[in-house]
Amino acid sequence: MAQAQRLAEQVKSLNSKIRGLEAALAEEKAKSTEGENHTLTSAAPDDGGLKAVSEAIGSLSLGMDGQAKYHGESAGAEYLQDLLPRDESEPSKQMARVDLPHEILALMHAFPFGFKESPYSKSIFIRYLPTKQRAMELAVTYYDSVAWMYDCIPSEDFSNSILTPIYGADGYASTDAIHSHRLAVFFMILANGNLYDSHCDTLAAEQYYALARAALSVDSILVEVTCATVQALFLVFRFIYNSSQADKEERWMLTGLATRVAQVVRPIKFYSSAGTTNLRYLAWTA
């Protein structure tokens, strides 16, 4: 409030000076004696008010790729250094190198909200599903190297609700029996696992990452959200954190979105094969 009052007073002072200059200009035109001293030439206008206003505006940082961030009046230079990528040559999007058909790219670019009425089905992802053995290897790597910190989907739940519906008893991959958001969780676990695999394939990790974003967009989160939706968003956040330090802003936005979605999802009651009632809670820590 004090800042607004100070700016209002400065604007009022500047308006008064403008009116004075306009009056002096009108008087100058009315004078017929050439060379007569006048208010406009006798003293330079005081720009102290303009300087004060410009200093009160604050700080704005610009990146090489056009990023712009306003930091307020009191932002310090040492704080601004980490808000834009240090390495301006780093690609702004990791997915620039992946080679995917236009249907999946369209879904990928619709992330995170997706299409309310998607023209695509889950079947377009079948060709990108690895063998069951490879999927299990990457899942083990994920749980050993990533999930030790935040385990948003227990390994038993992953096996029962994702691996089994995809591969069934015979090991042949299919997307018919799995929700698109669970499919996104599956791809994100593969992507995170690839980052720490002994045969680390960065391009494969980026492709699984792109597939996960596309899978989440098949069914819009504006229409339906489940625990798998929150899990997928969290795993996307973890992948960005593990693979790149340049996308800080996207990480925070995804964290906020995941939190809002988690507030919508109610604890889901389900029954085990033994008939025991359990409650599944998704817990978040700051």
Task: Describe the protein's architecture and organization.
With 286 residues, the chain is mainly α. It has 2 domains: 2-57; 94-280, no CATH class. It has helices at residues 2-30, 39-42, 48-57, 77-80, 102-109, 132-145, 155-167, 180-195, 202-218, 227-243, 248-264, and strands spanning 59-62, 68-72, 268-271, 277-280. A two-stranded antiparallel ribbon has the order 1-2. The chain has a two-stranded antiparallel ribbon with strand order 3-4. A hairpin with a 5-residue loop joins strand 1 (59-62) and strand 2. Helix 7 packs across helix 8 and helix 8 runs parallel beside helix 10. The chain is elongated and about 100 Å long. The relative contact order is 0.09. The model is unreliable at 88-92 and 268-286 (pLDDT under 50).
Concise description?
This protein has helices spanning 2-30, 39-42, 48-57, 77-80, 102-109, 132-145, 155-167, 180-195, 202-218, 227-243, 248-264; strands spanning 59-62, 68-72, 268-271, 277-280. The chain has 286 residues and is mainly alpha-helical.
If helices are DSSP runs of H or I spanning 4 or more residues, what is the number of helices? 11
Low-confidence regions: 88-92, 268-286
Beta percentage is: 5-15%
Strand order of the largest sheet: 1-2
Distance between the termini: 32 Å
Could you give a short account of the major beta sheet? 2 strands, antiparallel
User: What is the residue-averaged pLDDT?
Assistant: 77
Compute the number of structural domains: 2
- From the alpha carbons, calculate the radius of gyration and give it in angstroms: 29 Å
